[in-house]
Amino acid sequence: MNYELLCTKVISIVRLTGNFIRKEALQFDVQKIEYKGLNDMVSYVDKTAEQKLVQNLEKLIPDAGFITEEKTINRTGKTYTWIIDPLDGTTNFIHGIPAYGISVALYEDGLPVIGVVYELNRGEMFYSYKGGPALMNKKEIKVSTNPDLKSSLLATGFPYYQFDKQPQYLKLLTEMMQKSHGVRRIGAAAIDLVYTACGRFDAFFEYNLQQWDFAAGCFIVQQAGGEVYDFSGGNDYFEKREILATNGKLSAEMLTAIKQYF
């Protein structure tokens, strides 16, 4: 498998789908949103974008499986699996807040080999492939070199359902706010992760995520020299759906804080 060539083809597919989303953003009617659950919104833009991605990615690896947010396809693959979020940051998109994008990852035998995250408003394409560097618009990116929390800017996400862990999360958030330059909540985990990969954020933490939220972003962080853990400090984040992604230098300090509350 030529991962670099395949990644180039994925980027073209993602860019084409991004053009569709941008066009729809100019004329989006908020009355057309649907609710999948409490505060969990979806629109025809999400669904159509996913269909476009699936139709084109199927041509690259015909027998690959798919894990997709909007469930336009549900298929198990023996070797390869695409993990897709067609519009990460749907709530931002619906409200006209310019922070959303597309996330596509390819897993081979359970391990990531390609990750692509396209932030649509700034036109920034983040990507990496097995054996290659992490890049943004063809320029190599690396995680930051900040050595400790007191010199760092952090990112997180807030739960919008399943609030049972909210009390300890708020305690953790309070501590992180007091010990760092600040904590940002953009509202799109894939964007938070690639911003960590390129050094804009020094670390990102969030729980109750879905695989399509972080599959591509976590891989890009690791390819950029960063580290990714679950809240226990292990590597079972894919199943636990809780993420701590750091520049590597903050991992121990942040895990000590997280373990107090989770």
UniProtKB/TrEMBL annotation:
Pfam families: Inositol_P. Keywords: Hydrolase, Magnesium, Metal-binding. It catalyses: a myo-inositol phosphate + H2O = myo-inositol + phosphate. Mg(2+) binds at residues 69, 85, 87-88, 213. Its EC number is 3.1.3.25. One of its GO terms (biological process) is inositol metabolic process. Signal peptide: none annotated. SUPFAM superfamilies: Carbohydrate phosphatase. GO terms for molecular function: inositol monophosphate 1-phosphatase activity; metal ion binding. Its cofactor is Mg(2+). Belongs to the inositol monophosphatase superfamily. This is Inositol-1-monophosphatase. It comes from Pedobacter ginsenosidimutans.
